[in-house]
Design goal:
It is an enzyme of class 2 (transferase). This protein is of the alpha/beta class and 245 residues long. The protein is built from 6 helices and 10 strands. It is globular.
């Protein structure tokens, strides 16, 4: 059984006598957040529509979590612009700046650590997290996927579900492990496949469900913690979570 440490305020450098923390590239970053809220770092590669839902939710003190930073592998990702507009710190860790995948993965982990993350949320992050990252944040990194895992893992979950001819697909929030979309499931929501759906129309409906799923369960995890027991996930002291919707 793996029990990640309970969410907490983390260690914050004092503003007196100590400079602001820095990313591995040397950029200063603010250390923000309510001491009562779990600190969440979001990884994102794209436009950030899912991130936007979290940024709205974290304004409510009852949510229990605060997005303290957004980290991307794409310098012009729309998610970074959303974060800046919301006053949230940003960092970019591009694979091309490193000699190997392992070096990039280690730098990503170090960047996230700068923000004293209690939880990491991968929301549209199009990179597989490696050993160095999972050594530091394994068991407390969550990922959303646009299919009902274990069906249709990988980058083309929506397309694959349509090609297979399923009548119901959906979205999954899972704990990240070393595989591709193989981690224990936290929660799922079913989304019917409608006649005439193409990949775009189906994906848009899944995104709506995905945003609601992420906000609900990141809040629950932040407020109550999360325990992984084999393939089963317990959030907030309740029983293993399963499909809804």
């Amino acid at each position: 059984m793996t029990t990640p440490p309970a969410p907490g305020p983390g260690h914050r450098p004092s503003p007196e006598g100590r400079g602001a923390p820095r990313t591995p590239s040397g950029h200063e970053v603010p250390v923000l957040g309510d001491a009562q809220a779990a600190r969440v770092v979001v990884l994102a590669s794209g436009g950030g529509s899912t991130l936007a839902a979290l940024l709205d939710a974290h304004l409510d003190p009852a949510f229990g979590a605060r997005v303290v930073a957004v980290v991307s592998d794409v310098p012009d990702a729309g998610a970074l612009e959303r974060a800046r507009d919301a006053g949230v710190a940003c960092a970019v860790v591009e694979p091309k700046d490193f000699g190997s995948r392992a070096e990039w993965d280690a730098a990503l982990a170090e960047t996230v650590a700068v923000f004293h993350a209690d939880w990491v949320v991968s929301a549209g992050f199009m990179r597989i997290l490696g050993a160095a990252f999972l050594d530091r944040f394994g068991g407390r990194t969550l990922n959303t996927h646009p299919a009902l895992l274990p069906a249709f893992p990988g980058a083309h979950g929506v397309r694959d579900a349509l090609a297979y001819g399923v009548r119901v697909t959906g979205c999954t929030l899972h704990v990240v492990d070393a595989g591709t979309d193989t981690g224990p499931v936290v929660a799922q929501v079913a989304v019917p496949v409608e006649d005439g759906d193409d990949e775009s129309t189906l994906h848009e409906r899944i995104k709506v469900a995905e945003r609601d799923l992420l906000v609900e369960w990141v809040g629950r995890v932040a407020r109550g913690g999360l325990t992984v027991d084999g393939r089963h996930v317990v959030v907030g002291g309740g029983g293993p979570t399963g499909p809804t919707g």
